[in-house]
Automatic annotation (TrEMBL), chains A, B:
<feature type="domain" description="Tetracyclin repressor-like C-terminal">
    <location>
        <begin position="91"/>
        <end position="196"/>
    </location>
</feature>
<protein>
    <recommendedName>
        <fullName>Tetracyclin repressor-like C-terminal domain-containing protein</fullName>
    </recommendedName>
</protein>
<dbReference type="InterPro" id="IPR041478">
    <property type="entry name" value="TetR_C_27"/>
</dbReference>
<dbReference type="Pfam" id="PF17935">
    <property type="entry name" value="TetR_C_27"/>
</dbReference>
<dbReference type="InterPro" id="IPR009057">
    <property type="entry name" value="Homeodomain-like_sf"/>
</dbReference>
């Protein structure tokens, strides 16, 4: 936290400062949900009825405010991924939980407030560079899961990066938040389980001929 | 075509009328690409510099104009699906071509004009009820492919509707047009081939345990 002696003195104790900051973040989230757009520090000060210098002591610039909102959104995702990675489930169970728990969290958020959820989806798409580190972290953990699965014979012969890309594509409806906004009723943990079963039973480097030798000119 | 004697007389021969209509559709497409929004008959008349009654003789109402634009977009998709269904390729090759040819068409359109492509994606999402019949037709043809594949031992034990839903989810990045707008460089015919291979090797009704008995509370 960027907090000098002077700001700390202005703000009371560090605990008070942190809880005030958390309260300001709730205001920022509410603004995003209402307006569907990113929030500046000055707009937040006006909305929350707080002096601008006080907001500026909490967030060094508008990007830091945005990043704090993003961190609030993805914090639970990171916790879920770390818990699943630390568990001693077999690889197929682990991969299912890795996707299913985050899917369930997203679905709860979507169903609790579809309009706010859409606002966050659009904001994340428009500012993807500030979300990327969470996507990269998820890829990092998924690579660990793939390595564990390969150690037990799954995904035979596939480079980890290739398996990563193919798995990400095949489970995309369960990770890409905005898919919920148009096909919530067709997504389920049961289907996700069948997809993970399919991956473990069928995904390998073996060319089984679907693509054919003659490419798109064949039929 | 809704075309009375009087309109036909006004418009010259039916051939002239049809080519004029096709020309007006090009104008409508250009308007959509420029504005990113649906087009009314009166706006089209103004844009094309044509008397409004002339446009009204071609399109009974704004919905009919919109449907004609949608038909122009999906016409090639329908041709592709029918050609693939009529071919005598084995089921895995057929399913690959079924998805790959339409993916390639979408990708060509996207790369030729990304902004116009995005405008069509947004328009299709906003007026999904007018696109639904094409989605339903694709599902209908995919069910035929699934039945052919099951006759040769694939997707064992799965109800056709269930296989349809799971396959649609696992190939979603290659059918949902707007995925191209954010991950074009990660999609390829080669990966699609590996996904179809994975489906044919691994998708069945067998519960292989990814979901576990204890659901999401397990890890």
């Amino acid at each position: 936290m960027r907090l000098g002696m002077r700001e700390r003195a202005m703000s009371g104790t560090a605990d008070q400062f942190d809880s005030e900051k958390a309260r300001m973040l709730r205001f920022a989230e509410r603004m995003i949900e209402e307006r569907g757009d990113a929030v500046s520090r000055s707009a937040l000060a006006g909305y929350a009825g707080v002096p601008r210098p006080r907001i500026e002591a909490m967030f060094a610039d508008d990007d830091e405010l945005f990043d704090a909102v993003v961190a609030g959104w993805f914090g639970d995702h990171v916790t879920i991924m770390e818990e699943v990675l630390a568990s001693d489930l077999p690889p197929n169970r682990k991969m299912f939980e890795f996707f299913a728990r985050r899917f369930r969290l997203q679905r709860e958020r979507f169903r609790a407030n579809p309009a706010a959820f859409k606002a966050y989806c659009e904001l994340g798409a428009a500012h993807f560079e500030r979300v990327r580190s969470y996507v990269d972290l998820a890829d990092h953990y998924l690579c660990e899961l793939i390595a564990q699965a390969q150690a037990e014979g799954a995904f035979e012969g596939l480079a980890i990066d290739r398996a990563l890309s193919l798995i990400n594509q095949m489970v995309l409806p369960y990770t890409m938040a905005d898919v919920l906004t148009y096909m919530d009723e067709r997504l389920s943990e049961e289907k996700l389980g069948q997809i993970v079963d399919t991956l473990f039973a069928g995904l390998s480097a073996a060319d089984r001929g679907a693509r054919g030798l003659s490419g798109l000119r064949a039929a």
